[in-house]
Amino acid sequence: MATHKSALKRSRQxxxxxxxxxxxxxxxxxxxxxxxxxxxxxDQEVAKAALAEAVPAIAAASAKGAFHKxxxxxxxxxxxxxxxxxxx
Length: 88
Fold this sequence. Notes:
The chain is an all-alpha fold. The protein has helices at 5-40, 44-64, 69-87. The protein has one domain (18-87): Up-down Bundle (Methane Monooxygenase Hydroxylase, Chain G, domain 1).
C-alpha cells in the first residue's frame, strides 16, 4: 500500500478512472451490440439510428482516454461499413 501523500492521491485517482473507464466501455459495448443486432436482423433504419448513438459515444470515450484514438476509429469504421452494407 502507498504511504506517501502523493502516492495515496494517485491511488484514489486511479481507482476513480478505472471505475469511469469500466462504465464507459460497458456503455460502448452495449451500443455496439445494438448496432450489430440490427445489422443481423437486416433492419436498416434501426441500425442507422443505433449507429448514430454509438459513434459519438465511442468518440467521447476516445477523447476521455478510455480507448486509444485508433481503436475508436477502427470500431467506428467497422460498424459504419456493416451498416452501409445493408444498403447494397
